Every structure is written in C-alpha cells, then in structure tokens.
Amino acid sequence: MERVIESKDLLEAQSHVWNHIFNFINSMSLKCAVELGIPDAVHSNGGRPISLCELANKLSIPSTRIDHLRRLMRLLVHSGFFTCQKIKKGDGDGERDVELFLPTVNSSLLLKESDVSVSPFVLNMLDRIFTLPWHSLGEWFRQSNVPTAFEIFHGDHIWGVTKQNASFGDSFNEAMASDASLVGKLVASACIDTFCGLQSVVDVAGGTGTLARAIAKALPQVQFTVFDLPHVVEGLTSEENGRIAFVGGDMFEYIPPADAILLKWTLHDWSDEDCVKILKRCKDAVPPKEKGGKVIIIDMVMTSRESEHFKSEETQLFFDMLVMVLTPGKERNEKEWSKLFTDAGYKEYKIVNALGVRSVIEVYY
C-alpha cells in the first residue's frame, strides 16, 4: 500500500530540501561580508552598536543600497555573526524602528588584522577555482580514470594549479597560514606538552612557516625546519636567530632528520598508499620512541555522534567531501589512521582531542 504523506510533512520536507539547495547562500553571504569589510566595521565601533546608515558610511556603500545591506545583515545575524537590537526613534506618525548591530565571537574570527583571522581562508575556499569543480562531481562519479572532480574541471591537480596561477597560489598560502596561525596559538597553549623535550622539529608541508613561528615563540629551545616544495619556500630566509630555517624538497623523496616530524593538515590530502609513503619517510627521519622520536600529526579523526569526543560531525563530513573533490585524500577515523601507522611500520600512537574538530596524534616506532 502506498504511504499517505500528510501535507504538513510534505511542506516540512520541501523546506528541508530548499535549505540544502540554498545552503550556498550562507557561504557567499559570508564571503561578501568579508570582502566588504563588515566584521571590521562593526568591531571597530568602540563597543557601541552600529546602525545601517553608519555601517554603510564606513563601508562607502551608496544610500541606494542600504535596504539591501539590511537584508544581508539580517542573514548574518541569523547565522550568528552579529546580534541585532531595535530601538524606537521619532514621534507619532514619524516613529520608526532603527536596527543596531553588535559583533559576536564568531565575527571576531573574521577581522582582517587579527592574529587568528580566518578571512583569508574564507576568501580562498570560496574562490571560483575551488567552487566550480563541484559542478563536475556527478561526472567524476561515473569515471574511474580521473583522481578528482577538481582535475576534471581544471585539467590539472590542485598543486599544479596553485603553482601555475600565482595569485591563486598566494591566496592559498595565505589561507593555510591563517589557519596555521589559529592552530599554532591553540597548540602553544593546549598541546605544548607534545613538544616538551624535543630539540628539533621539521614542519613538513609547513608553507611559509606560520605554524612553526607560533610554536617557536612558546618553545625557545627548539630548532624548527620548515620543509615544503621549493617554489613555496623560495626567497624565505632563516628567522629567530636561525631557530627557524626553510628547506625546499619533496616529502615523497626525503625529509630532513629531527627529533620530531610535524604534519599539520597534510595527510588528509593524500591517498592511503601515498600516506604510507610519507609516513615511511617520516620514520626514516626521526629516532625511535626510546630515543625521544615521534611524528606529530594535526588532522581530523572522524568521530560518530555517540563518541564522547564528538565535536561537530557536520563539519567533519563537509571536510571529507571537500578533500574528496579537491584531492585524492580523505578524512579518516581512528581505525583508518591505525592501519596507516601499522602499514608504515609504527608500533604505537596516541590521540589528543584538544583542537575542536581536529586532533593531535603522536605516533612512535
């Protein structure tokens, strides 16, 4: 017998589908807010709420766009980036509601000059180069010979595009640096024990050194080497009286030796086979556990809703889909991580859940 669906259920289902269809509006509205400088304008108002007219004036938005700005701000309030309070102004027939806006902790992450700003990450992840390949996802599922939807659309893998397109490559490096700055600050406060006793650390795929700088400030006794592709570290010179050095190379071929190897948000970009290769190179570069050696991985450990360490399942699912579209990699659960470590010749690992949706994994042999 065919199931009879109540009208109320049909309408709720329709709203559910619509919300998923138009979820991109949240992302693009956030991008627009960052491009306009709305978070900085609201936060820089001396702690006072700001009106739409004041906001438009600060942002050089014409008066003909004030009602459109109100509609954008209404969505950003709904999304938790700002709060809104209404006050009455005028008397009698001239009385009107005036909307005043205040910042939230969420919008504080969007301040362009903040050391924990994620604005570069917002702008890069929502760049057309990253968003357009999603239109090729269905085509990619029907093929078996192209590693990613990104390659179907662009004709090259992500690392080739970032190398050939200088402006996009710079934007990508700034995005990774902004994330590294936030993570570095958290690691230096919540996970500093992970680095205690170490004399040297190689940050593999460390970009322009943002993470190394953040951790080095808290650990003046540690020598850091930032290791990345030659074109990424080209022109970078040693810092902190030589405590931070930059070396170019290919992590699949060789990794400089150290007490510890640091891999932040690197392995999720690669297949299991390639991860094992990288981890074997790391193993060659560090001493065994009894001599103080370790590999330190900062990455997601996929968790279920029932897990006591569950933080944000939806965020992890989003990231898993993101790396599937952009790279041959994946986000992994503990069982999948454990198999990688075993296949690469490691004997022991420890997971520290201290970085929100990401974890710190210490691996030893």
From TrEMBL:
Organism domain of life: Eukaryota
Annotated PROSITE patterns: SAM_OMT_II
Keyword Methyltransferase: yes
SUPFAM superfamilies xref list: S-adenosyl-L-methionine-dependent methyltransferases, Winged helix' DNA-binding domain
Any Pfam family: Dimerisation
O-methyltransferase C-terminal domain location: 134-347
InterPro entries (UniProt xref): COMT-like (IPR016461), COMT_C (IPR001077), COMT_dimerisation (IPR012967), SAM-dependent_MTases_sf (IPR029063), WH-like_DNA-bd_sf (IPR036388), WH_DNA-bd_sf (IPR036390)
Active site residues per record: H268
Segments forming domain O-methyltransferase dimerisation: 18-92
Biological process according to GO: methylation
Alphabetical keyword list: Methyltransferase, S-adenosyl-L-methionine, Transferase
Gene3D superfamilies per record: Vaccinia Virus protein VP39, Winged helix-like DNA-binding domain superfamily/Winged helix DNA-binding domain
Annotated GO MF terms: O-methyltransferase activity; protein dimerization activity; S-adenosylmethionine-dependent methyltransferase activity
UniProt keyword Methyltransferase present: yes
Name by which UniProt lists this protein: Trans-resveratrol di-O-methyltransferase-like isoform X1
Natural source organism: Ananas comosus (Pineapple)
